[in-house]
Amino acid sequence: MSSGKLTEQAKGVFIIAATPFTDDGALDLQSVDTLTDFYLGCGVHGFTLLGMMGEAHKLTGEESIDVVKRVIGRVGSRQVIVGVSHAGLENVRRLAHEVMIAGAAGVMVAPPPGLKGDDGIYNYYAQVFQALGPDIPVVYQDYPQATGVYLPPTVFERLVDDFKQLVMLKHEDAPGLAKLTRVRESEKKPGRRRVSILVGNGGLYYPQELRRGADGAMTGFAWPEMLVKVYDLFASGKAEEAEDLFDIYLPLVRHEVQPAIGLALRKEVLFRRGAIKSPKQRAPGSSLTATDKAELENMIERLERRLADAGRGSKMAAE
């Protein structure tokens, strides 16, 4: 059982877990186990389930709960955040309560596409917080590239001031560095809470975001050990060494965030690393061509050479 509820002090790497399926599209709970163990072996500090990368919209309600229970039963003291975004507020409320009963530390909610204006955002989340009650910690998922909803820092500040259950910002605006700085600067005002900020976008801007006050990453890059090591180096005051390590992986970070085939690439790597039995997505999903796979293989070989040259060895297989 994961330990305690999510708070403003959350930090580190909360990996966004992929959802494994068999070649014929069935939920593969055995691979959920091996993938969870793989992430644990990479040193992640927490998990985020049923995110956009987790193909949550392709799962039935029963499957969603099965995945959550399976992971929570395996992660020991690591906290688990569960995405509960849905067009219907009652569905958000129901899933949030179910996953909290199952042992989740908190839930993540993205604004529904088409939400208009500052008051539209504020009023929607006010309804979410009322529906969930004061005891469920909430992560605001700020991913305007997918939702079409831009979150102004001033609106986020209002929400933080008015709703104590809002404890984290999942920051994925791009470009978003100036926005991250604005949020952190505003928290220095007397009486204002400092909330946790974990960043996404595949880790593309990770070192700069850590320098600007992010507390870690919430993304699904298929080499989670890099995310963890970069965080640890930053936390111990070795920012330049952290950037050097990040730079070795950057070509694959960049390659993996491609629209359309990004998830297929990520699952292919997890499959090659032995973490899951099949790289398949549940239909409809993207797939890789022979050229895509050859290209990825070449990039992995280059990564392993760069790691060896840097004296860091190479660990392609899951631990």
TrEMBL record:
- Name the keywords, alphabetized: Coiled coil, Lyase
Q: MF terms per GO, please?
A: 4-hydroxy-tetrahydrodipicolinate synthase activity
Q: Name one GO cellular component term.
A: cytosol
The residues the record assigns to binding pyruvate are: M218
Coiled-coil residues: 286-313
Source taxon at top rank: Bacteria
Which family, according to the similarity comment?
A: Belongs to the DapA family.
Q: What is this protein called?
A: 4-hydroxy-tetrahydrodipicolinate synthase
Source species, please? Enhydrobacter aerosaccus
